[in-house]
TrEMBL record:
Gene: dprA
The name this protein goes by in its record: DNA-protecting protein DprA
Pfam families: DNA_processg_A, WHD_DprA
Domain Smf/DprA SLOG: 81-288
Entry similarity comment: Belongs to the DprA/Smf family.
DprA winged helix domain ranges (all copies): 311-365
Biological process, per Gene Ontology: DNA-mediated transformation
Amino acid sequence: MDKVSAWLTLHHAPSVGPVTFRKALDYFGSPESVLESGRALLSKSGIFKREALDFLAQTESKRAQLIEKDLRWLEGDDAHILFLGSEDYPQLLMEISDPPSLLFVRGNPDALLLPQLAVVGSRNPDVVGKEIARDFARKLARAGLTITSGMALGIDAEAHRGALDGGKTVAVTGTGLDRVYPARNRDLAHEIVQQGAIVSEFAIGTEPRPENFPRRNRIISGLSIGTLVVQAARKSGSLITARMSMEQGREVFAIPGSIHNPLARGSHLLIRQGAKLVETTEDIIEELGGMLNLLREQLVEHSSSEGGSTREESDPEVEQVLNAISYETVLVDQVVEFCGLTTEVVSSIIMRLEIKGEVATAPGGRVMRLQK
């Protein structure tokens, strides 16, 4: 069995969540070794429950039926899977107590390597909340932060839209990536794929279930160096993301509101619990400045040690893309046309060059070269 199929098969095993999966990796070394082991050895490890042992004892052909949808999806455009512990798996996410064993990604996986800030809040914000979410996300994206959220209605969607105006954004979903939830965000999802990535730990075909969204929230906070709460009632799900961020040792920011506004009570609660009150994007940039610089240095070192993208663009292609980008902004589509490469390859190279500080992206799908 090939590596991808082995990882997917173990991912589908009943009662094998992120913690059990990681224990299995530590004990057996790889999913392939797990699947090659007999029931006696698997049972002796003490890792797996009975239902998992029964599943792993099935024939390979029977287990393969469960991963057919995943493999078919992987054949599509902009479809990727990242494995826990691999070089392209986000380092910050790997540091949480229960990192996903694998990530399904639509779009550019390199977006997950950039410094991210989670922006979350109410699904039913008022007009002021929507404006603040979009404005903050736009300015923070232009300052070099990738904005990460859950693609829900309300603050999430406004944060993604603002980030698309200023830079890059990542959406983490609680469903399989073969569907968009909520469906009315379909156009937004398409834009996110073009300018960032949509991510899920859930297998293809997974429907939106209430229990999926707290798991999604830990990924949103786990990918990010901090979480900003824009508007939230006291029982808002965004408070779960903020508390997870605190537990993960990340920064939490909250925008205050009127004492008469019920949508401000969650933010006020967080501030009383230690979240940093912010009034401007400069407050966040100033607080994160040292961490941002450190992350960027690590990204440059990581990119240099890899010698390029995980999709192995050749040096001539990188040079070709760089030569196509002037010191005045140009459309990425023009770079694609000039180089004769695919949009995916050009976008990946541009992101690597941005990490190295050689180019900068601009609103409207534009990019420009920087003086070194």
